[in-house]
Automatic annotation (TrEMBL):
Source organism per UniProt: endosymbiont of Galathealinum brachiosum
A GO molecular-function annotation: metalloendopeptidase activity
Gene3D superfamilies associated with the record: Glucose Permease (Domain IIA) (2.70.70.10), LysM domain (3.10.350.10)
InterPro entries: Cell_wall_metabolism_enzyme (IPR050570), Dup_hybrid_motif (IPR011055), LysM (IPR018392), LysM_dom_sf (IPR036779), M23ase_b-sheet_dom (IPR016047)
Entry superkingdom: Bacteria
Name of the protein: LysM domain-containing protein
Protein family membership: Belongs to the E.coli NlpD/Haemophilus LppB family.
Pfam families named among the record's database cross-references: LysM, Peptidase_M23
Domain LysM: start-end pairs: 8-52, 101-145
């Protein structure tokens, strides 16, 4: 397991897709999308913080550290507000589910968190309450949850009542030059099949490592062969990841075959497909690379996000 592994949340990095993040956490991508209220085509942004566990009834998850990443609408620049690592985050007070005219800022609340909880974007709350980056909030501050009557033109009056406090929630601000360009997960234009009709062996060779459910290093099978030999799609589908951003997978291809099934091909010498490509069963998608200095393909099949034994699906040779 990588260092600083956070089971509760993940910060999106350049090159990530919703599918690759879900794969990392052994979750179905639809579950991650639902937890974070992300709609198809599942656009995510570098620096965006994703929750990997469902929220509790009061809208919180755990006492994890949650850096706030917001985007300036005009410039597209990412504004990162980080909480010191030694500071523990405490759970927010229970929030009423009834639509109120205002929201009262609680300790450790952020504009992004309040917006998500109330069902708005942080840009809307910032505009309605005349907030400027870095959107510092103070406990007891009241935020309007609807636009003012004259918000579409003319001057508006101040509407955010602030209780005196001695210290804002947010810590020091640092700006990055990250451009807020969405990373859109590839979605096939054709309706996905409910099941995979037939599987194909991804490479010619001998199985040298078998699947074992309780061992993290054996979530799939290892197939030995010759360096550079073709690696082929085990079934028809759409490429949803092609890159080397996942730790312990090297050059990796992930293909979505149906509503439930995905397959992965790891430690490749080179990749022959890109995200969004439609592939046929048996089509070459990569060249076999090396694992521990020996030519080998690591192959996985996942059903609803969970690893399953590929030998239960591949035809008997």
């Amino acid at each position: 397991m990588p260092k600083r592994w956070d089971p509760q949340g993940y910060t999106v990095k350049r090159g990530d897709t919703l599918y690759s993040i879900a794969w990392r956490y052994e979750k179905d991508f639809r579950q991650v999308a639902e937890i974070n209220n992300i709609q198809s085509p599942y656009a995510i942004y570098p620096g965006q913080r994703l929750r990997m566990q469902p929220a509790d009834k009061d809208g919180t998850t755990t006492d994890e550290i949650r850096p706030q990443v917001l985007t300036e609408p005009e410039t597209g620049k990412a504004i990162v507000i980080e909480t010191p690592e030694e500071q523990a985050v405490v759970a927010s007070a229970t929030v009423s589910r009834k639509k109120a005219s205002h929201a009262t800022v609680q300790k450790n609340d952020t504009l992004y968190g309040i917006a998500r909880r109330e069902g708005y974007s942080h840009h809307q709350l910032a505009r309605w309450n005349h907030l400027q980056p870095p959107y510092a909030l103070k406990p007891g501050q009241k935020l309007r949850l609807s636009p003012t009557a004259n918000s579409l033109g003319g001057q508006s009056t101040s509407i955010a009542a602030v209780k005196p406090v001695t210290k804002p929630i947010t810590s020091s601000l640092r700006s990055t030059s990250v451009k807020a360009v969405p990373i859109t997960a590839s979605v096939s234009k054709k309706p996905l099949p409910v099941k995979v009709d037939r599987w194909h062996w991804p490479a010619k060779g001998r199985v040298v490592k078998t699947y074992k459910a309780n061992e993290p290093s054996r979530k799939g099978i290892g197939i030995t062969g010759k360096s550079g030999q073709p690696v082929k799609a085990a079934a028809a589908g759409t490429v949803v990841y092609s890159g080397n951003g996942l730790i312990n997978y090297g050059n990796l291809v992930i293909i979505k075959h149906s509503h439930s099934f995905l397959s992965a091909y790891a430690y490749n010498q080179s990749l022959l497909v890109k995200e969004g490509d439609s592939v046929k069963r048996g089509q070459s998608i990569a060249r076999m690379g090396k694992l521990n200095s020996k030519p080998q393909l690591h192959f996985e099949i996942r059903r609803n996000g969970k690893p399953v034994n590929p030998l239960h699906y591949l035809p008997r040779s």
